[in-house]
Design a protein that fits this description.
alpha/beta, eight-stranded mixed β-sheet, 8 strands
């Protein structure tokens, strides 16, 4: 009798050349189980951005967030659509076009076209989303609002959104002015295309980013006409336990936003 090898999902560690940043750039990609079973099918994509001091492994290994296990379970239970998920290595850039790396431009000009070329993706706005934790939440908002024709949804987990930056890793650095110049108030005031959904989760007891900053963000976005969902959790400090709880909720929100 022939041995039957059951196909399974994968998280693959890969490297690409970034022409924008002139570096070999690490990324990881989650491929759902049926990607290898249905060779004619194309998939929506989600880009996930890590936080300050982190790297591409933070949401793609078993230590902090086991994305493979979470995605497999949600897809198997038909709680989310099968999707390709790309884990971006953003260094400590706040995903800005900073003095060292032009991270925002690299994501748009290098990474997304490369992923769309290499994998069977649905290459349109309605099938592409971005999400992030802490610094990555600020980055996801910044990247997506600056490119409203590329993303359909933004997922934010304890996003590093401050009205005023004090006692912070970027305080007093060249990133500070860039942070302010790419604030949500500026980007939402410029952005004419409101056809983008924002899903925000935060903790009332977050010790790094006071929830009052996020309340102000939510009120501003609503006033500007954005479709925004906001859930403030009573117990959700700025840590991996909180983000492990938020992550499946963000995945469900984003999956529902895909118009496929």
């Amino acid at each position: 009798m022939d041995n039957i090898i059951e196909k399974s999902s994968e998280i693959i560690a890969e490297i690409m050349w970034s022409e924008v940043m002139k570096i070999h750039w690490n990324y990881r990609v989650y491929i759902p189980k049926d990607y290898k079973e249905n060779l004619d099918k194309k998939y929506p994509t989600l880009y996930v951005l890590h936080g300050w001091g982190g790297n591409v492994t933070n949401t793609s290994d078993e230590t902090r967030i086991d994305s493979k296990a979470v995605l497999d379970k949600l897809i198997e239970n038909k709680e989310i659509k099968p999707m390709i998920v790309i884990f971006v290595d953003g260094f400590n850039s706040f995903y800005l076009d900073g003095p060292t790396f032009k991270m925002k431009t690299a994501i748009i000009n290098d990474l997304i076209p490369f992923i769309d070329f290499k994998y069977r993706t649905l290459r349109d706005k309605k099938s592409r989303a971005i999400a992030g934790i802490s610094m990555g939440g600020y980055g996801a908002l910044n990247v997506a609002l600056s490119n409203g024709n590329i993303f359909t949804a933004i997922g934010l987990m304890s996003p590093a959104i401050w009205n005023e930056v004090t006692d912070n890793p970027i305080y007093g650095t060249p990133l500070l002015n860039l942070y302010y110049n790419n604030s949500y108030k500026i980007l939402m005031s410029k952005e004419n295309n409101k056809d983008i959904s924002i899903f925000t989760y935060h903790g009332k007891d977050d010790e790094v980013i006071s929830y009052k900053n996020i309340e102000n963000f939510f009120a501003f976005a609503k006033n500007k006409g954005f479709n925004i969902k906001y859930e403030l959790k009573d117990v959700a400090p700025h840590n991996w336990e909180s983000w492990r709880e938020m992550y499946p909720q963000v995945l469900k929100d984003i999956s529902d936003s895909f118009n496929i």
